[in-house]
Design brief:
This protein has 235 residues and is an alpha/beta fold. It has 2 domains: 143 residues, HAD superfamily/HAD-like (Rossmann fold); 80 residues, DNA polymerase, domain 1 (Orthogonal Bundle). 51% of the residues lie in helices and 11% in strands. A 6-stranded parallel beta sheet has the order 3-2-1-4-5-6, sandwiched between helices. The radius of gyration is 18 Å and the shape is globular.
Length: 235
């Protein structure tokens, strides 16, 4: 029986790509950097993902990620890298301005409220996530919020999950499931922590052999059917 859901935010409950594009384009305009094309945005996303994965592997610090990704991006397109730190600070605030829900995620959170405990588990920055969760009202629907920047460990580090488990007084790990779009942080983190994993995979990509994925969904509403199957009494 599953009685606890750990929700990822960016790319799962919220459309991170939409917020990312809107934030970068707005700041390009503010800094008079010219047009930020789709090709540039796609390249930034690749750079960003690579830096976050290095953080997940504990190769670099969070601050190195936040500034380094923009330094690399700007360098590739001939933009002054000196503005990277300030650009990032404004970017964190700007990310919370665009709220686009995945699969009407608030409806799912409400449907599960009172049936299972629900917590946010995110590697996003405190500044960005606090604003997103407030503006989206997702934060107030949750039983708790756990941000890696505050905990001092990132998903998929088992220490992050042990902190979460201690604070929610989890005594049965088999009753906990993480739902997220990232194989390297969410699914790997769930594997490390010994809990059930549900990969949100709207692109319907094949599951790499090295990951133990208990469930794969392409729409968040499928989660309710999974829980109904797992928990026969849930209606």
């Amino acid at each position: 029986m599953i009685n606890t859901i750990l929700w990822d935010v960016d790319g799962t409950l919220l459309d991170f790509d939409a917020a990312e594009k809107a934030a970068i384009r707005a700041l390009f305009s503010e800094y008079a950097l010219g047009e930020c094309s789709e090709e540039m945005l796609s390249r930034y996303s690749e750079i960003n993902n690579s830096w976050w994965q290095r953080l997940e592997r504990k190769e670099i610090s969070r601050q190195e990620v936040l500034v380094g990704r923009f330094e690399q991006f700007f360098s590739e397109y001939g933009i002054d890298t000196q503005i990277a730190s300030e650009f990032n600070e404004k970017y964190q605030l700007m990310l919370g301005e665009t709220i686009v829900f995945r699969n009407n995620s608030p409806e799912i959170i409400k449907a599960l409220k009172g049936k299972v405990k629900q917590y946010v588990v995110s590697n996003g920055t405190i500044v960005a996530q606090t604003k997103k969760l407030k503006r989206s009202k997702l934060g107030e629907m949750m039983d708790g919020i756990f941000l890696s920047e505050k905990i001092g460990r990132e998903k998929p580090d088992n220490a992050f999950f042990m902190t979460v488990f201690s604070q929610i007084h989890a005594d049965d790990l088999s009753a906990i499931m993480i739902v997220g779009d990232s194989l390297t942080s969410d699914i790997q983190g769930g594997m490390n922590a010994g809990i059930k994993t549900c990969w949100y995979n709207p692109g319907k990509k094949p599951v790499p052999d090295r990951y133990r994925v208990d469930y794969v969904i392409s729409n968040l509403h499928e989660l309710i059917n999974i829980l109904n199957t797992e928990n026969r009494s849930m209606a």
